[in-house]
Design brief:
Largest sheet: 6 strands, parallel
Mean pLDDT: 94
Low-confidence stretches: none
CATH class of the largest domain: Alpha Beta
Shape: globular
Strand order of the largest sheet: 3-2-4-1-5-6
Order of helices and strands: EHEHEHEHHHHHHEHHHHE
Number of domains: 3
Radius of gyration: 19 Å
Number of strands: 6
């Protein structure tokens, strides 16, 4: 895959579903034309998971500068607002940013703007963690719900927490969104459009490689700190391998469940990108 005509003086955004080859393209561009690779993946920010989240390897990090990878403690929460505040200073740095990841909300925050919502107090977060998914949905206003994937508990809980913290609906906060930090017209926006069957095969192979490379040991090292309410512990593969280590699943069953969960996640990502990333240049991987 070659992109020799990418302007060297413009930021590059590379989005796409998991396992589609985004990081390899980012590294290719950085090595050829220079730049700093900046993470835009919500799971890869956590220090505790390198193998399970397919973070760049140490060897890859030596080939080009990487930022915002593995810099957040596993016990900390992290949102699109956190990410945007951290990425803004990097946009003004001396090296051209190459922003790569699969978290669509990070890219929309960057290119469309994001409301400056106050942080959620610990008490409200704990209350929300203890509520059922249905209870959260029933507590969120209808206008906000209309713009959410209500199957995604994290999104619904976020809407509830904003409403409980501020007394304002999340939809109202979004209506007051400031101008974007990096408008789409000022960047090279690329989004991977990977065929489903090809991607599913890569997902299965990659999880097997994760197991071969020590994913089980990575989870075992965190077992005494595992808390399913923590965002870091919801990373795909973590609950499944924890269940295996606790004697609830065979390794083969854990592998199968993690692979299925990854395929389902990739499907949601593809749907999100196709619906919301109009104007991005599609990237069709070499098959």
């Amino acid at each position: 895959m070659q992109f020799t005509d990418i302007p060297k003086n413009r930021p590059v955004l590379i989005a796409g579903p998991t396992a589609s080859g985004k990081s390899a393209l980012a590294l290719e561009i950085a090595e050829r034309d220079g730049g700093v690779i900046i993470n835009a993946d919500a799971s890869q920010v956590y220090r505790c998971w390198r193998i399970l989240t397919a973070r760049p390897s140490e060897e890859e990090e030596e080939r080009a500068p990487h930022m915002l990878y593995g810099h957040v403690q596993c016990t900390d929460s992290y949102s699109a607002g956190h990410w945007l505040r951290e990425v803004l200073p990097l946009l003004a740095g001396p090296r051209r940013p190459i922003i790569v990841g699969g978290t669509g909300l990070y890219f929309s925050a960057l290119t469309q703007g994001i409301a400056d919502i106050p942080p959620t107090p610990a008490g409200i977060r704990a209350q929300a963690d203890a509520m059922s998914h249905d209870a959260l949905i029933s507590a969120v206003d209808e206008r906000t719900l209309a713009g959410l994937d209500t199957r995604n508990r994290a999104r619904v809980q976020r809407a509830y927490e904003v409403q409980a913290t501020t007394g304002r609906a999340l939809a109202d906060w979004k209506a007051d969104t400031p101008p974007p930090a990096l408008p789409l017209k000022d960047v090279v926006p690329l989004v991977f459009d990977a065929p489903r069957d090809w991607l599913n095969q890569r997902i299965a192979r990659r999880f097997d490689q994760m197991l071969d490379n020590g994913a089980l040991d990575e989870v075992r090292a965190m077992l005494d700190r595992y808390d399913p309410s923590l965002p870091a512990c919801r990373a795909i593969g973590v609950p499944e391998l924890v269940a295996h280590l606790q004697g609830e699943l065979s390794l083969e069953d854990a592998r199968e469940r993690a692979t299925i969960a990854t395929r389902q996640f990739a499907k949601r990502q593809r749907t999100w990108f196709r619906a919301r990333m109009q104007g991005w240049t599609p990237v069709h991987p070499d098959i």
